[in-house]
Every structure is written in C-alpha cells, then in structure tokens.
Amino acid sequence: MATYNPNELVLLSKSDEITLDVDADIRGRKVVSSAGDELGTVHDLLVDQTTNRVRALVVNHGHLFSKTTSAIPVEAVTKITADEVVIDQNKDKVGDAPAYDPTLIYDEDYFVDVYDYYGYTPFWYDEYVYPTYPIYV
C-alpha cells in the first residue's frame, strides 16, 4: 500500500491552480443523486497537487437551518451537466456522511473513514484506479 501524503491535497479555491475551461469548473453546481434528488451544492474541490487530479468534492448540503459540509470522493460522480453534478449516492447517505473539516484533510484516518463510508478505495492505495471522467452533457 502506498502512503498517504497530506501535503498533496489543497482546496482549488486556496491554490494557484485554475481551470482553463470555465465550463469545466463545477463549483456552484447542484449535486443530485442518480434518482434526481437534490443533495446540495459543490462548494469547492480537493485537488491533488502532485497529479493535478480532483480527489473529492466539498459539498454543502442540508436544510436552511442545518447546513453541513462533506467531502464526497470524486469516484461518486457519474455525470456532469451544465447545471448539475450527478453522483451514485442517495440523499440519506450524503446526509449522514462524515462532516468536512478543513483541518482534517491532513489526517489519513479521516480520508480512510470517508472512502470507507462511501464504499470506495482510497486514492493512495496501490489497487486504486482513478475513475474515467463522466462525459459532460
């Protein structure tokens, strides 16, 4: 198993990185389940600075008085449209997800828990394969 390097991760908004194609920047888009349930909004992206790959969506979700932010692994994304990011997780799963805390991106155990919770292999494991990006429609 490869080792986790916390210094590789950074929020896109806090980095010097930019998206060359404005349409490819999914921040601000609605996140919906494959069943069509609205789950929240993409607040930011966690980017691996070494590979320049998105590792997780930082999503705001919940109700007006009980907003929560969670990291959702990029592996959950199944489709991206001009207005939405569709994921293969349901409303209850996202609603009960571990809360995102920006200080925890440096904690390997936090990401093991997040990837485990959603049922994906953590990105630093040897058997991990980066997902083929969904076609933008």
UniProtKB/TrEMBL annotation:
Record-level GO BP terms: photosynthesis, light reaction
Residue stretches making up the PRC-barrel domain: 24-93
GO cellular component term of the entry, any: plasma membrane light-harvesting complex
InterPro entries xref list: Bac_photo_RC_H_C, PRC-brl_dom, PRC_barrel-like_sf
UniProt protein name: PRC-barrel domain containing protein
Species per Swiss-Prot/TrEMBL record: Leifsonia tongyongensis
